[in-house]
Design brief:
The complex is a heterodimer of chains A (about 375) and B (about 290). With about 375 residues, chain A is mainly alpha-helical. Chain A is built from 14 helices and 3 strands. Chain A has helices at about 1-35, 40-65, 75-90, 100-125, 130-145, 195-215, 220-230, 230-235, 240-265, 275-290, 295-310, 320-335, 335-350, 360-379, and strands at about 150-155, 160, 175-180. A 3-stranded antiparallel sheet of chain A has the order 2-1-3, covered by helices on one side. In chain A, helix 3 packs parallel to helix 5 and helix 13 (about 335-350) runs antiparallel to helix 14 (about 360-379). By secondary structure, chain B is mainly α. Chain B is built from 11 helices and 4 strands. Chains A and B meet through helix 5, helix 10, helix 12, helix 13 and helix 14 of A and helix 4, helix 9 and helix 11 of B.
Chain lengths: ~375, ~290
């Protein structure tokens, strides 16, 4: 038991080191390249999206990988955070100094996403499986749709809010903050220097990863994974299902809100239409390709999948075509039992030469089938 | 009278959703997977009808049959190549693969047929029918869509409940392992399910585009999602449920477009879905399955 425990502790330490080495390594490489002027403007423009998607993927991993529930509405929290943040950024925060302005914007974005997470989470977590997936998708569509018909502005008479253009009148000179389906454009960047914005993005990513890893190695985290592994057993030993499910769901929403704020401040425009189920699916793909419950994996997958379409820009016509084929092939090779078996057999053929005992190979195969049998029984 | 008009066109739109939802719900019932690429099969069906009927002037019935054949083949191929190897893999892996197939279909269409919108000519060349002394004129497409969907639904119910193969399908959906032990060819049944679902998608595509005549590679995406919602709404896995869910969804969407707000109609549809699921978590006609401990 003691040995097992130590092994476990080792594994979590390894995850910490790997995650932070990955993020800091990326930051150092980009800083060096940036100061040498070796980064194209296109590449510079991708830095924040990589950070934002990595935060999205790590936070979605909390729900999909650790809690084991499929959410198709993660974009909604990003949108909630981005919208609330931008309304403050362009409204009350307009004349503030830049540093507190950005910090307050981030806090407001995170808080708004968290509140939306509570609104969505309380009804949604009564469901499970495909029903939960469809309800999260529904909430995402509702938020996007309602925001697209919202008109918001401030003038000397106070705040004006309407769901209809004809009911929305501002005094001349006052600037509307949300103009229905029209994208909000001309949002100031965090800083004119891309490297500073990038450092902010990296700092937020580190914050997210630290929170998620600490949560997962705590009592609460073990309760969350227990719920994933067997809900009924978890309930029977007295774990409060609603509490821990909500905890995972809301934390995930808060970080998605942060990602939304930096993403939008970098892009300078906020187009509600873009935050639909396709975006949620893209993030989900990152989580699954990176490995469920694997934090460094999510970060790598987010970076690769954000860069891949850009690297394929030369074949612009074919890039999404190639992307879709790559996606299918990766899923088949990593998940299909026939391929997994083939991989085990190939490994077994290579390994014995390196004096690997035959027993271990058999055991690997055996445990694989045992896992499969377990899964069959679950069905 | 105006209300009746909105109601009828809502039922017609809902019948199209129902046809697509039937494909979702049958595949879910039998293969236990969400086939996200189903919406894009509609789009392929639409293009097939466009190239045969609109461009080359085939007989509409022949064009639809051709599209059904192509989509059937496509459905079987997708299942064989992308889904069958993952039969015992985690359901999320299958879902992601289905999303990959959906992207693949959309982007292949974009490469093959370009992304410029094609304007579709209605496959139904009958005059509008006026009722109540000319106060209300209903396009023939609306009537044909409703009639065709009802016929398909009845045939499908008969097929599943009265034929030997239908019983085999029900057996596979109840317990795949036991069905295999009884000598049922499970792979064959799953292929057949995909074939039926995809051919219905082709019909749905032709009918949808006759009423809403803009064809682009992403045409199938939104109706696909709505039909998925309809299937869940009616209770996923249930054939009458998919039909009821589809029709209700179409009616709610059309009436809220007419009386509340065009832009908010989608939000209202999804809100109704959430409320229905909160009250009845298995959907309108879904079966409650007790969890074995």
């Amino acid at each position: 038991m003691a040995g097992n425990n130590q092994k476990k502790r080792k594994k979590s330490t390894k995850t910490y080191i790997l995650s932070f080495a990955l993020i800091l390594g990326f930051w150092v490489v980009i800083e060096i390249l940036g100061h040498m002027g070796l980064l194209s403007s296109k590449m510079l423009g991708l830095l924040i999206p990589i950070c934002a998607y990595a935060i999205m993927a790590v936070s979605l991993n909390l729900v999909v990988g650790f809690l084991g529930e499929l959410s198709l509405g993660h974009a909604a929290f990003m949108l909630a955070g981005a919208t609330a943040g931008v309304v403050f950024y362009n409204g009350a925060g307009l004349n503030m100094p830049q540093i507190p302005r950005v910090i307050i914007t981030l806090i407001i974005g995170a808080a708004a996403a968290g509140i939306f997470g509570v609104i969505v989470g309380v009804p949604v977590l009564r469901f499970s499986g495909d029903y939960l997936a469809i309800v999260t998708l529904a909430f995402c569509q509702i938020l996007k749709n309602v925001l697209s018909t919202t008109y918001l502005g401030v003038d000397s008479k106070g705040i004006h809010l309407a769901l209809d253009q004809s009911a929305f009148r501002l005094e001349p000179g006052a600037k509307p903050l949300i103009k229905g389906a029209q994208p909000i454009s001309g949002i100031n960047k965090i800083s004119p220097d891309m490297m500073i914005s990038f450092t902010v993005g990296i700092a937020l990513l580190i914050l997210t990863v630290t929170f998620v890893l600490n949560l997962m190695n705590s009592r609460a985290g073990r309760a969350i994974t227990a719920i994933r592994d067997d809900e009924i057993a978890a309930k029977s030993i007295g774990i409060n299902l609603t509490r821990y499910k909500l905890m995972a769901f809301i934390s995930s929403a808060v970080f998605a809100g942060l990602a939304g704020v930096i993403y939008v401040l970098n892009l300078s425009t906020l187009d509600f239409k873009k935050y639909d189920y396709n975006l949620s699916i893209n993030v989900l793909v990152m989580v699954v390709l990176g490995g469920m419950g694997n934090v460094p994996g999510s970060i790598i997958a987010a970076a690769v999948l954000t860069l891949l379409p850009e690297l394929l820009r030369d074949f612009s016509q074919y890039r999404m075509f190639i992307y879709s084929i790559v996606l299918i092939v990766i899923m088949l090779f990593t998940q299909a039992p026939a391929f997994v078996q083939l991989r085990h057999r190939l490994m077994a053929m290579i390994r014995p030469k390196k004096s690997m005992p035959e027993e271990t190979v058999e055991k690997a195969d055996g445990s694989y089938f045992a896992a499969q049998a377990d899964r069959k029984e679950d069905e | 009278m105006q209300f009746l008009g909105y109601l009828i066109s809502g039922i017609s739109l809902g019948s199209v959703y129902a046809l697509i939802a039937l494909g979702y719900t049958m595949v879910y019932g039998i293969a236990k997977m969400l086939n996200f690429a189903h919406g894009d099969v509609i789009m392929v069906g639409g293009y097939m009808v466009y190239f045969t009927f609109c461009s080359r002037g085939w007989h509409p019935l022949l064009a639809v049959l051709f599209a059904m054949a192509v989509c059937t083949l496509l459905g079987i191929t997708i299942e064989r190549v992308a889904y069958r190897p993952l039969r015992s893999a985690p359901s999320l892996a299958v879902l992601i693969t289905a999303i990959g197939v959906s992207f693949l279909l959309q982007n292949s269409a974009m490469l093959l047929w370009k992304s410029d919108p094609k304007s579709f000519t209605s496959i139904i060349s009958m005059d509008p029918i006026s009722i109540a002394g000319g106060q209300l004129s209903i396009p023939a497409e609306t009537i044909v869509t409703i009639v065709v969907s009802v016929i398909i639904m009845i045939v499908l119910l008969w097929f599943v409940n009265k034929t030997r193969i239908g019983h085999a399908m029900k057996a596979v959906s109840e317990d795949r392992g036991a069905a295999q032990l009884m000598g049922i060819n499970v792979n064959g049944i799953i292929s057949l399910t995909f074939a039926i679902g995809s051919s219905l998608a082709a019909v749905a595509g032709a009918l949808l585009l006759s009423s809403y005549p803009t064809l682009v590679p992403t045409t199938g995406a939104m109706p696909g999602i709505k039909a998925f919602v309809a299937a869940v709404f009616g209770g996923i896995g249930s054939i009458p449920g998919a039909f009821l869910g589809g029709v209700l969804l179409g009616v709610i969407e059309n009436l809220s477009k007419a009386y509340i707000s065009t832009q908010l109609s989608d939000a209202i549809v999804f809100l109704v879905l959430i409320i229905v699921l909160l009250v009845k978590p298995t959907g309108l006609l879904g079966k409650k399955i007790a969890v074995k401990v």
